[in-house]
Design brief:
heterodimer; A: mainly beta; seven-stranded mixed sheet; 11 strands; 0% helix; 52% strand; B: mainly beta; four-stranded antiparallel sheet
Chain lengths: 112, 115
């Protein structure tokens, strides 16, 4: 299930199931988005990106969907594995050389 | 992909001392580097934007005299936390942007603990 509160939202899934992590972004001018994975004590690791002229992009076991109408981004992980357990951040960018604005993050816990 | 390193990865210092954190782009020239701060279980918050050869641009609420940023070369930016206090304890992460790539590459982060 998913919980939102004072702590980081958490999504718990069974190993082998698919995971869907959602993100609402803030700036309608944002034209580039990245999903990052962050493991404890480490910097963000690039997973997949998408530009605003696309609504879907697929990588290896991951798919990003972009809905510009409602400013929503999602990350789908197929056949979730224990190694996928981490905090996932979406980040939006309004142009080259500009900083990324990060979402609040979602902790993914993979249950055995 | 491009590699960004940070040094040190972890530092513990006493209150009142200054700490310098280095961010290096190892295989590309970074015209712009960003410094972020991350509190436990929180997202990354931009502190400042650093362009090579010019003064850094600080976000609102970030004290520029407290967090000194120098971007003297296309491969190195430094963040100095001056007169550190326990509330400065945090995870500091840099990212580098350069070349024709749109993407930014993040360093592994530096854990600062001020006692």
């Amino acid at each position: 299930g998913e919980s939102v509160g004072l702590h980081l939202p958490t999504l718990s899934v069974q190993e082998g199931d698919n995971s869907i992590i959602n993100c609402a972004y803030s700036n309608s001018a944002s034209d580039y988005f990245i999903w990052y994975k962050q493991e404890s004590g480490k910097g963000p690791q690039f997973i997949i990106d998408i530009r605003s002229n696309m609504d879907k992009r697929q990588g290896q076991r991951v798919t990003v969907l972009l809905n510009k109408t409602v400013k929503h981004l999602s990350l789908q992980i197929a056949a979730t594995q224990p190694g996928d357990s981490a905090v996932y951040f979406c980040a939006e960018n309004i142009g080259y050389g500009q900083n990324f604005v990060f979402g609040p993050g979602t902790r993914l816990s993979v249950l055995p | 992909g491009a590699v960004v390193s940070q040094h040190p990865s972890r530092v513990i210092c006493k209150s009142g001392t200054s700490v310098k954190i280095e961010c290096r782009s190892l295989d590309f020239q970074a015209t712009t580097m960003f410094w972020y701060r991350q509190f436990p279980k929180k997202s990354l918050m931009l502190m400042a934007t650093s362009n090579e050869g010019s003064k850094a641009t600080y976000e609102q609420g970030v004290e520029k005299d407290k967090f000194l940023i120098n971007h003297a070369s296309l491969t190195l930016s430094t963040l100095t936390v001056t007169s550190a206090h326990p509330e400065d304890s945090s995870f500091y992460i840099c990212s580098a942007c350069g070349g024709l790539a749109y993407e930014q590459y993040f360093g592994p982060g530096t854990r600062l603990t001020v006692t």
